[in-house]
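Thread title: Can someone regenerate the structure for this chain?

I was given the following input by a collaborator and told the matching structure tokens would be attached. They weren't. Posting the sequence so someone can regenerate them.
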Amino acid sequence: MVKKGSKKLPEQKNEESTADKILISAQKLFVAHGFAGTSISDIANDAKINKSLIYHHFENKEKLWLKVKDTMVEKFSPDLQSYGQHTHGAKVTLRSFIEDFVTKRFEFYLNNPDMVRLIHWQRIEDKEKPLTKDRLSSSLSIISQNTIEELQKKKEIRNDVPTDLIRAFILTTTSAIFLIQPHLLYGAKDKKIAKKYLELLIDSLMDGLRPRKP
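Best answer:
Regenerated them for you:
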């Protein structure tokens, strides 16, 4: 065990360097081809190492896939954690809640296409296996149920729909374009397109969530 403040031995640095190389290559290939479309040999060739080293560091492809996603979640954790943090009490309004949550989530997806592609592959390959039950899935599903309930009590959000369905409506509506037609935003020559779509998204959610008139 290395004591705090002591220098790492050369072999420890080499171990970390090899693991990092594997993770970098694995992320690139998983993002491009998905879990099923990427082999251990592909990763080894890209990292220019013997594939036995991948088994040494990560045991198997599934654990490497999970580690790649955990690493990405750790990298973006400040943004992900902010998803569930909203103002509570008398000051919160439907508009402030929707603008805050949706804008943060939308901009996160817009600025992190690799994360979006990984989520896309995960959805395609989801067969109720453990590889989808990880921090990526849970971190991207954070939304304040308390805030929704507060707004329902204040009659700002319709209360004829269960809270879980409202959460799902907000989450899926916000991410849909990135998972279904991402080229409309990522490939847009007009940089104002994303802003216009965000405005449309917020207005649509506001209209859908407001209480129905008798």
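The chain has eleven helices and no strands.
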